[in-house]
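Hi R.,

Here's the input for the zinc ion complex you asked about:
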Amino acid sequence: MKKIKVTCLRCNGTGLECRRNEVCPTCEGKGYVNFSYIPFEKRKKLRGVKKVIVRGVNLAGGVIEKEISYEQFLKTKSFNLYNLK
Ligand SMILES: [Zn+2]
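And here is the predicted structure with zinc ion in place:
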């Protein structure tokens, strides 16, 4: 887990709420808030999965479902759910 400081969106980094120049309650006047995140390295595997459902739309706009193996899912980097064949 990594932590960074990001600009407070409520006060736009000023520490004050513009309407009444009140101390921003979100960042307590600091102008930033702490943000925690986990950097993405690679897609994690789930144990025990055999089949994966791919749901999307075909060219005619109809909803279709395809069942693929978990191995095929892991080999595929990204699914275009708006243009399933
Ligand atoms: Zn703020």
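One thing worth noting: Strands lie at 2-7, 16-17, 22-23, 32-37, 51-57, 63-69.

Cheers,
M.
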